[in-house]
Amino acid sequence: METEGTAPTAAIRPGYVHGYSERETRRLGDQADTLAALLHAGTRYPAGSRVLEVGCGVGAQTVHLVGGSPGARLVAVDISEASLARARDRVAAHARDADVEFHRADLRDLPFADASFDHVFVCFVLEHLWDPGRALAGLRRVLRPGGTITVIEGDHGSAFFHPDSAWARAAVDCQIQLQARAGGNALIGRQVQPLLSAAGYAEVVVRPRTVYADRTRPALVEGFTRNTFIAMVEAVRDEALTAGLMTRTDLDRGIADLRRTAEDGGTFHYTFVKGHAVNPAR
Ligand SMILES: C[S@@+](CC[C@H](N)C(=O)[O-])C[C@H]1O[C@@H](n2cnc3c(N)ncnc32)[C@H](O)[C@@H]1O
């Protein structure tokens, strides 16, 4: 089965699809805060355990990790120094007493000793890698035998909404195509189980976690439909136009139709995938 992508060449790689703007920092924060109960349920690490969060970004999940596991010793890694600076600020503001160390590193080349962590946490990162299977296999080196990995990913193919609109679906597809051009895969949720198994993990358990938003759940409409999902599609509007993926008229109609799903009478569904697995003794 083919699960790995192709290494993006400089010619086709516009960079990390979401970018590192202030707007994206807010979007990641809204996403993590709105979905914390849904995505972090069941993730609790014992006091004293060493936990590695790879691709921590601006620390949006980090504060929920340490909030749910007081006493755990967290090491948070990202490839972006600017994101790490924001993550430090976020943890200082929201979890001042937490035991968190930050390191700038590529998750494929981590500066840590073999078997130095009890748990690894990966959220919304594999979707940006051209080699997610190799990355997962590589993380086993720093995870002790018997230690666990938790992986959370989205899958934009799981998004459906009312009122339905071919323009809105095409606008979402722009995000999927641009992410693929950057070497990622916005449909990776459906591959989490095979990726973990192929990387050599044992006891792989993957479950869907669905967000459903309508006017009776205004916090989800605001935090997820508007500020996480639609904001993500809006953020690639210019890049999608430059790439000629849709005409300006059609893309703007698609974005307007997506916004209608967050108004009275609209509904929005999206399914995340959360996987848990154990690093077997070699
Ligand atoms: C969508 S963000 C998710 C951030 C955070 N996990 C969250 O859920 O809010 C993806 C993050 O992965 C980081 N990243 C991408 N490739 C990486 C790599 N090879 N090594 C370390 N971090 C990486 C990016 O810099 C970015 O901060």
Overall description:
- It is globular, with a radius of gyration of 19 Å.
- Helix 1 (22-40) crosses helix 7.
- With 282 residues, it is an alpha/beta fold.
- Strands 1, 2, 3, 4, 5, 6, 7 and 8 form an eight-stranded mixed beta sheet that branches.
- It has a domain at 22-159 and 185-212 and 270-278: Rossmann fold, CATH 3.40.50.150.
- The chain has helices spanning 22-40, 62-68, 81-94, 132-139, 166-181, 192-198, 218-235, 237-242, 248-260, and strands at residues 50-54, 73-78, 99-104, 117-123, 143-153, 160-162, 202-213, 267-278.
- Helix content is 38%, strand content 22%.
- It starts with 21 loop residues before the first helix and ends with a strand.
- It has nine helices and eight strands.
- S-adenosylmethionine binds next to helix 1 and strand 2.
Which keywords apply here?
Rossmann fold; binds S-adenosylmethionine; SAM-dependent_MTases_sf; Methyltransf_11; 282 residues; methyltransferase activity; 8 strands; alpha/beta; Methyltransf_Superfamily; 22% strand; 8-stranded mixed sheet
